[in-house]
Amino acid sequence: MPKIAIVTDSACDLPEGLQNRHGIKVVPLVVRFGTEVYLDGQLTLGEFWNKARQGPPHPETSQPSAGMFEEAFAPLVEQGYHIICLVITSKHSGTFNSAYAASQSFPGQVTVFDTLSLSLAQG
After folding, report:
1. 74 with 35, same domain?
2. Count of structural domains within the chain
3. Same domain membership, residue 42 and residue 90
4. Residues 50 and 76 in one domain
5. By 3-state DSSP, what share of the chain in percent is helix, strand and coil, each rounded to 5?
C-alpha cells in the first residue's frame, strides 16, 4: 500500500497542532495590502487588523501559485508518497486550478479534490 500525504491550503484554518500531529502540509494563500504582499500566516491577527483599519488599500487575497504547490508536492513525491490535495471551493477561489496545474508535473502521484467548502469545513 502506498504512503499517503495530505496537502491543503491555508483556507482550511486547521490549528497548527493538528497539522503537525497528522503531518498535513499547508500551502499558504496570498494576502495583499496594495503593493505589500504576505503569505497567509506571516501577519498576526493583530497586525492584519491594524493594517485593515489603516486602509485603503484594503486587504485582498489570492490563490497560491502552481509553483507553490509544486514546491509542496515535490519533496513528498520524492519520498514515495501519493498526495491527496484538498483545496478551498473553486466557487470562491482559483486555488483548485493552481493545485491541479501543479499536479500535472507529477502524473499519477497527486490527486486534487475540490472540497466545495472553506474554513474548518474544508479541514
Report:
1. no
2. 2
3. no
4. no
5. 35, 30, 35
- Does 43 lie in the same domain as 103? no
pLDDT value of position 94: 93
Cell of 4: 499517503
Whole domain around residue 96: which residue ranges? 1-28+64-123
CA distance 93 to 87: 9
Q: Are 11 and 30 in contact (CB under 8 A)?
A: no
The model's pLDDT over 69-95, given as tens digits with 9 standing for 90+, comes to 999 999 999 999 999 999 999 999 999
Strand order in the sheet with 30-33: 36-39, 30-33, 59-62
Alpha-carbon separation of residue 99 from 4, 14, 25, 33, 40 (angstroms): 17, 19, 13, 24, 17
